[in-house]
Each structure stands twice: as structure tokens, then as C-alpha cells.
Amino acid sequence: MFGFTRRSLVFAGLLTAAFAGPVAAEEAKLPVVASFSILGDVVARVGGERVAVTTLVGPNGDAHVWQPKPADARLVAEAKLVVINGFGFEGWMPKLAAAAGGKAPIVVATTGIAPRQAAEDDDHDAGKGHGHDHDKGGHDHGGLDPHAWQSVANVVAYVATIRDGLIAVDPGGRAVYEANAAAYRAELEALDAEVRAAVATIAKEKRRVITSHDAFGWFADAYGVEFLAPQGISTEGEATPKGVAKLIRQIKAEKITAVFVENMTDKRLLDRVAKETGVTIGGELYADALSPKGGPAPTYVDMVRHNVRLLTKAMAGV
């Protein structure tokens, strides 16, 4: 009566499916919030096409000093899963979660990993980690070094914890999450071996590095490299003149050649150190955040390779 033939109705149905399909598929993805860019990349690798990952602190962002906005509370409220690092890294998360009022489970990626204590040092002297309570910024490490991702073996553990968290909220995706996690684990184990082999090419007495803040303690323990830093484990801390003067004397006395800034810190402090010692800054390491896409460290694996390439080159004095 309306002039529609069976063929035209079928064709119209196909058109509707063609346009609606991608939208429906996108809407079906599990909304997951990760606290910062490195963790967001790991979650995306495990979740694959079943998840839509939103990162609160993005590339080149500094989670130490980050302050949530109302829009971030909405993201957390709408998430089906929230993934954080733990060890006090996200000091702002309890207030954010309370403001969001969401019911999403919070997965702590460092669950099951034995914590690494950060040594106390009131002068922020070189070569030591520092425990800080930053009530002003809502950032409290509680004396722990939260940068566990600097040991690749720890990220292998992250992967298993994230996989189990995803399965708990999305049981239908178990096969996908398990397969993705297994493939990623194999890649990470190969990366860990790659880092060990690269560091092994450097004489032990040359494995000493200056960085702007003490974010590489886990790397030091895992791979046998000593890191010295004028700042503590948080970029909120400030290096004292006494600590900086001691660091400058140490660089001169021990002829340390590997000096680096980090992508999310103010490099003026190390500029001063370089000027007073004559040491050239060897480049930019990625400690607490990835680079944007198109940069040298857009993924966790890329970040590790970038850092190791710069570190070994500088330590070798090339």
C-alpha cells in the first residue's frame, strides 16, 4: 500500500545495520578509567577491543601534582572499572572516588607486589629516595616508592591483576582478556631480557645516572644501575641547596657522564647542575608519563626502550 517492495525493505534494513553497527559496537565497549598514561596503555593492551580506556593524567602529565576536575569525577562515576597504580601514587584518588559516588570496582595494579621503601633524607641528598607526606597537594607516598612500573617484571604482575579485574566485571570477555594478557606477558618478558642484556654491556663502575627526581629506584634494583637525584620520589618536593651542592661535588669527583631530565619535570634544576659541572644533559627520560602519539614513548614498551637506549649510550660515554 505504501509502495515498498520486499527487496526495498531488505535494502533499508541493511543500510540501518550498516550505520548502526559501529555505533552499537562502540557503545558496547566496557568503559574503564586508568589513573595515568602508562597504566592506561597497559589496560588497553589487556582489554583490547572490548574496552574503551580513559586516562585521567594524560601523556606528559605529572600525577604527583595533578588536581581532579568535576569532569574527572563524572568519568569515574560512569566507569565500570577503575584501575590505579597504588603505593600512594594517586593521593588524590580517595577524594575523587568519593566525589564521583560511582560503584565501579577499583583495581590496584600493584596488588601482590612487595613494596619498595624509599629512604628518608631531609636534605634531598643525591642517590637516595625520599618518603614525603604532601598533605597540601593530597599526595602521600607513605614512605613507599610508587614507581613500580620501572621494573618490567612488575608490569607482568600488573597485567595479571588487570586481566582478573576485567574478567570480574566482564565475564563474557574472559577468553579475549586471557589471550591478550598472555601475548602481552610474552612481549614484556622479552623486553625485560632485552633491558638486562643492554645494561650488561656497560661496565659496572659506569652504571651511575643523574635524574631530576628519584623515579628510577625500581629500575636500579632490577637492573643494577645507580640513580642519583636532587629531588625525592615526588616532583612536589624541592631540592635543598645543600643537597644540590653535594650532588655537584659528587658528579665532579666521580666523573659521572649520564645526566637526564624527565618529560614531566622542570629542567632548570639540572640545567644549573650541568652548567656548574660541565656535563651535557643526555636527553629526556620518560619516568611517570608516556609521550603523546608520534613522540618517542607513546606506549609502555616504547618508553622502556627509549629510556634504556639513552641510558646505555650516556653511561658508556658515547
Strand order of the largest sheet: 2-1-3-4
Strand content: 5-15%
Helix content: 40-55%
Q: What CATH first level of the largest domain would be assigned? A: Alpha Beta
H and E string: HEHEHEHEEEHHEHEHEEHEH
What's the pLDDT, averaged over the residues? 83
Gyration radius over CA: 23 Å
Distance between the termini: 83 Å
CATH topology of the largest domain: Rossmann fold
Shape field: globular
CATH architecture of the largest domain: 3-Layer(aba) Sandwich
- Sheet with the most strands, sense and barrel status: 4 strands, parallel
Task: Label the structural class.
Answer: alpha/beta
Q: How many DSSP-defined strands? A: 11
Question: What's the structural domain tally?
Answer: 2
Low-confidence stretches: 1-25, 121-139
**CATH superfamily caption of the largest domain:** Nitrogenase molybdenum iron protein domain
Question: Brief overview, please?
Answer:
The protein has 318 residues and is an alpha/beta fold.
Describe the overall structure.
- The protein is α/β, with parallel strands linked by helices and 318 residues long.
- It folds into two domains: 166 residues, Nitrogenase molybdenum iron protein domain (Rossmann fold); 124 residues, 3-Layer(aba) Sandwich (Rossmann fold), CATH 3.40.50.
- Helix content is 45%, strand content 12%.
- It has ten helices and eleven strands.
- The strands form four sheets. It has a four-stranded parallel sheet, sandwiched between helices. A three-stranded parallel sheet has the order 8-7-9. The protein has a two-stranded antiparallel sheet with strand order 5-6.
- β7, α7 and β8 form a beta-alpha-beta unit.
- α6 runs parallel beside α10.
- The chain starts with 5 loop residues before the first helix and ends with a helix.
- 46% of the residues are buried.
- The N terminus is likely disordered.
